[in-house]
């Protein structure tokens, strides 16, 4: 009790002390209270803001110059960063030359860092700026900054945030749409991180890649893989298109003006000036560890969407694919084809990846259900588009042709055992393409010509080993040359390919092929002929092909009557770029077709020389006259 009483007594004492305190504030007398408005202030001066901006400097709508916008790109506020990107994109369209001279490096450095910005609308605005930069700035001016673009793009691809990974494909699309050389020159650095978008290391101990699932995103795993594979397809296309040509162009020298023929040699200094020269020796070291895993990844992706048909089908029936399966099939098959082309050019030591266990299973699985087609074609033609903005072929003709091409190439390269059923299925598909309207068109004609040139030419023995008759296919190809569905350029290529089969003892005996050879001289009856067609005809004449020379002699009179009005079209680049008289050369080649005729009568010889004397110079006409007179022997000319 005593303790409590003492405590209360102390509290009362403390309160009493407050009342004893006196206020020290001195108030003014009543009625004289006033507020003093005089303050001592010190102005805050920013010297940079006092400098007047040059009237010649490019300014945005809000009178901000490039330096101000660059500083705002790293601002903490997302709206400020977004607005700065929008204004920079507009300024690049109006003042691209002025910006290039002064602030180019600073802008690109800041813009590249925004590829991994946490705010989506800022990343979208960054894509717009990069798109404008690639449109207005020349490629040679951007090349020094490729390292900045590639480094930040790799960071975006490997980010732990799913949204940033997805937007990294939009940054990649900017460089895929505008081929400035970025993809081909930085592919060694980009592709390893690009593959990680759909795969990862199997484990730290085991070598190899395994597919990943897209669990943290709104889009499905199949849709995400389609997006990635479509870009991979375009990357391989750009790399192949930008490969330097190995063959040198033809060099012509006019013997009438100069009696010396100099030997041209590529200068070593020219090779050193090539920007790709320094990387040519180191290329492939990174790919050696990633390319072998691509085919197994393709196989795993395909197995997840491939149709499981337990019912056996005939070789004339197709396997139908739905939306996502057809899109994945399209990109996987095209990427495999481009990968084969790429390995052939730069990584020949990696060809064995196409005969590995997984690659063999992949090819066998594709051939088991070959050929492929799309279900619900009418609906898909309206609403299904690939990420590149192009319609996927509803009949999958291009993809089926690629499967045939890879099958033949691997059989010939690695001596695989061919199955008769597989070859019969391929032959049935090709005959269907040739006999069905609009199956072969401008989108797949190049693949068709490539495959025909190897399956009936270089690798024709594959048919014979499996006892499959390819002559029916050859006759259908010959009939297709008269089709109205192909362009004149494709028709000439097809004629050139067919003419190469003249040395094939298996195909050249075909009655349809011999009839076609005898028909070829009628090309000279057309109002117009190309230099390539003239070379084909001259080559057959030099080889002494009997059906061709017989057809030439049979149609000699109408051909000679048509020669004065015959027009020549030049298509070969070496003729276009040369200084020689191309028209005289082509006329000389046309006349020398008759030089190789043997069984010719004296009236025919007289008529021939009469027409040629007005078509080519006299000295060249005498050469033909001497040769034909020597063969005949008893004509008095």
Automatic annotation (TrEMBL):
Keywords carried by this UniProt record: Nucleus
GO annotations of cellular component type: MLL1 complex
Domain Pre-rRNA-processing protein Ipi1 N-terminal, first and last residues per copy: 140-233
Signal sequence, renumbered to the chain: none
Location of the protein in the cell: Nucleus
Pfam family, one: Ipi1_N
Main location: nucleus
Record InterPro entries: ARM-like (IPR011989), ARM-type_fold (IPR016024), Ipi1_N (IPR024679)
TM region positions: none
Gene3D superfamilies: Leucine-rich Repeat Variant
Family stated for the protein in its record: Belongs to the IPI1/TEX10 family.
Name of protein: Pre-rRNA-processing protein Ipi1 N-terminal domain-containing protein
Organism: Diabrotica balteata (Banded cucumber beetle)
Lineage: Eukaryota, Metazoa, Ecdysozoa, Arthropoda, Hexapoda
């Amino acid at each position: 009790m005593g303790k409590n009483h003492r405590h209360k007594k102390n509290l009362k004492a403390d309160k009493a002390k407050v009342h004893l305190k006196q206020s020290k504030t001195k108030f003014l007398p009543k009625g004289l209270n006033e507020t003093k408005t005089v303050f001592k202030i010190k102005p805050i001066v920013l010297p940079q803001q006092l400098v007047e901006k040059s009237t010649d400097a490019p300014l945005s709508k809000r009178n901000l110059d490039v330096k101000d916008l660059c500083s705002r790109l790293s601002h903490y506020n997302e709206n400020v960063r977004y607005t700065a990107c929008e204004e920079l994109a507009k300024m690049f369209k109006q003042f691209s030359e002025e910006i290039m001279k002064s602030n180019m490096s600073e802008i690109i450095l800041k813009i590249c860092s925004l590829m991994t910005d946490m705010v989506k609308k800022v990343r979208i605005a960054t894509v717009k700026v990069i798109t404008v930069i690639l449109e207005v700035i020349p490629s040679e001016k951007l090349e020094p900054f490729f390292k900045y673009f590639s480094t930040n793009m790799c960071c975006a691809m490997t980010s732990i945030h799913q949204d940033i990974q997805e937007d990294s494909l939009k940054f990649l699309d900017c460089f895929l749409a505008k081929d400035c050389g970025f993809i081909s020159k930085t592919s060694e650095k980009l592709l390893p991180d690009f593959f990680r978008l759909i795969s990862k290391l199997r484990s730290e101990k085991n070598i190899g890649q395994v597919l990943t699932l897209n669990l943290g995103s709104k889009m499905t795993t199949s849709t995400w893989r389609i997006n990635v594979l479509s870009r991979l397809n375009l990357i391989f296309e750009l790399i192949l298109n930008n490969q330097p040509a190995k063959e040198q162009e033809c060099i012509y020298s006019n013997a009438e003006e100069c009696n010396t023929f100099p030997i041209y040699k590529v200068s070593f200094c020219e090779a050193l000036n090539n920007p790709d020269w320094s990387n040519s020796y180191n290329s492939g070291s990174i790919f050696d560890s990633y390319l072998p895993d691509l085919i197994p990844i393709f196989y795993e992706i395909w197995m997840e969407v491939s149709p499981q048909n337990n019912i056996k089908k005939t070789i004339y029936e197709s396997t139908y694919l739905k939306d996502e399966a057809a899109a994945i099939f399209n990109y996987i098959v095209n990427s495999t084809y481009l990968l084969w082309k790429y390995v052939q050019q730069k990584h020949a030591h990696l060809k064995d990846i196409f005969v590995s266990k997984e690659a063999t299973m992949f090819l066998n699985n594709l051939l088991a259900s070959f050929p492929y087609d799309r279900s619900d074609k009418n609906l898909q033609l309206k609403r299904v588009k690939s990420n590149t903005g192009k319609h996927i072929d509803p009949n999958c003709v291009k993809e089926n042709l690629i499967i045939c091409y890879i099958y033949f190439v691997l059989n010939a390269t690695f001596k695989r055992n061919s199955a008769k059923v597989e070859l019969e299925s391929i032959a049935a598909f090709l005959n269907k393409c040739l006999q069905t309207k609009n199956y072969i068109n401008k989108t797949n004609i190049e693949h068709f010509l490539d495959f025909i040139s190897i399956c009936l030419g270089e690798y024709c023995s594959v048919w014979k080993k499996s006892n499959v008759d390819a002559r029916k296919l050859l006759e259908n190809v010959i009939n297709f040359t008269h089709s109205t569905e192909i362009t004149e350029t494709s028709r000439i290529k097809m004629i050139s390919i067919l003419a190469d089969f003249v040395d094939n003892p298996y195909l050249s005996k075909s009655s349809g092929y011999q009839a076609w050879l005898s028909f070829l001289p009628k090309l000279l009856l057309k109002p117009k002929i190309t230099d390539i067609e003239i070379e084909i005809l001259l080559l057959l004449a030099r080889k002494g092909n009997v059906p061709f020379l017989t057809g030439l002699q049979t149609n000699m009179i109408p051909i000679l009557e048509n020669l004065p009005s015959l027009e020549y079209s030049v298509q070969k680049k070496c003729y276009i770029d040369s200084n020689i008289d191309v028209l005289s050369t082509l006329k000389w080649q046309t006349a020398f077709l008759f030089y190789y005729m043997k069984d010719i009568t004296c009236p025919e010889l007289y008529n021939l020389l009469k027409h040629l004397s007005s078509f080519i110079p006299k000295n060249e006409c005498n050469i033909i006259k001497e040769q034909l007179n020597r063969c005949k022997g008893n004509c008095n000319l």
